[in-house]
């Protein structure tokens, strides 16, 4: 299985989560909110074969981006994965809109032309995120937990960008409509753990199985066939940076 977007460092016991992913053979991409968080976790994650750490600058932390940007540039060549980055124009983030846009432009400019896979936050700013990707000639991007307009999905697909879906999305009607619209070859699985909980328990990478079970019913596939499709999709994305 593949968890393309998980915040390993935000669990109470990050080591146990990483160990479990490694033991179960789950490819797990751990997001970070800031380069200083990446710095703290990098040495711990290096030992694993299945677990990787992404270098992040979360939009809701944009007031810290200026002081963290030198670390972002320093660690840029330490990983193939960038995330979580993006824009957030929801009520929670709208007051930082201008700061977010300025920082996002700098981040994408520094990534442009480099072999990286990006995991994107785009809440209430989906059009702006897409336009920024196009302007900076970004090739390998994943829209994590997409919640924007259904019609914009077609535009995102036109540029070959991917979507990662999680256990929360399969529980809502809007989430199901979004999943229905995404082509099978551009779909990945994620948990966004520990920011999602099921029956009072935080999701872990192994819970991507819930998403695979949903897709098996939706696509009329066996679980093995779903797993094969997700692995094929992820492999196609990784080949772009080799």
Characterization of this structure:
There is one protein chain. The chain is α/β, with parallel strands linked by helices. A hairpin with a 2-residue loop joins strand 9 and strand 10. Helix 2 packs parallel to helix 3 and helix 8 packs across helix 9 (223-239). It has a five-stranded parallel β-sheet. Strands 1-2-3 form a three-stranded parallel β-sheet. It is globular, with a radius of gyration of 17 Å. The protein is 43% helix and 16% strand. The chain has one domain (2-239): TIM Barrel (Alpha-Beta Barrel).
Q: What is the CA-based Rg, rounded? A: 17 Å
The end-to-end distance, rounded to whole angstroms, is 21 Å
Inertia-based shape: globular
CATH-derived topology? TIM Barrel
Give the integer mean of the pLDDT values.
Answer: 97
Total count of domains: 1
**Biggest sheet character:** 5 strands, parallel
Give the CATH superfamily: Metal-dependent hydrolases
Q: CATH top level?
A: Alpha Beta
The CATH architecture assignment turns out to be Alpha-Beta Barrel
Structural class: alpha/beta
Strands, total number: 10
Regions with little confidence, pLDDT below 50 for 5+ residues = none
């Amino acid at each position: 299985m593949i968890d393309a977007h998980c915040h390993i460092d935000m669990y109470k016991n990050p080591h146990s989560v990483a160990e479990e992913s490694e033991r179960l053979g789950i490819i797990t991409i751990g997001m970070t909110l800031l380069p200083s968080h990446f710095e703290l976790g990098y040495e711990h994650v290096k030992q694993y074969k299945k677990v990787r750490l992404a270098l992040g600058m979360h939009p809701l932390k944009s007031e810290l981006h200026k002081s963290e940007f030198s670390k972002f540039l320093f660690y840029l060549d330490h990983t193939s994965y960038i995330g979580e980055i993006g824009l957030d124009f929801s009520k929670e983030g709208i007051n930082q809109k201008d700061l977010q846009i300025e920082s996002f432009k700098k981040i994408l400019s520094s990534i442009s032309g480099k072999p990286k896979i990006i995991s994107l936050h785009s809440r209430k700013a989906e059009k702006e995120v897409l336009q920024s990707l196009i302007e900076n000639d970004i090739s390998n991007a994943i829209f994590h937990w997409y919640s924007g307009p259904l019609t914009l999905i077609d535009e995102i697909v036109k540029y070959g960008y991917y979507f990662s879906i999680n256990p929360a999305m399969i529980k809502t009607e809007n989430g199901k409509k979004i999943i229905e619209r995404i082509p099978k070859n551009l779909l990945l699985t994620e948990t966004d753990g520990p920011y999602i909980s099921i029956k009072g328990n935080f999701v872990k990478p192994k819970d991507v199985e819930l998403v695979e079970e949903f897709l098996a019913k939706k696509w009329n596939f066996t679980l093995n066939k779903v797993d094969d499709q997700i692995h094929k999709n992820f492999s196609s994305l990784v080949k772009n940076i080799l």
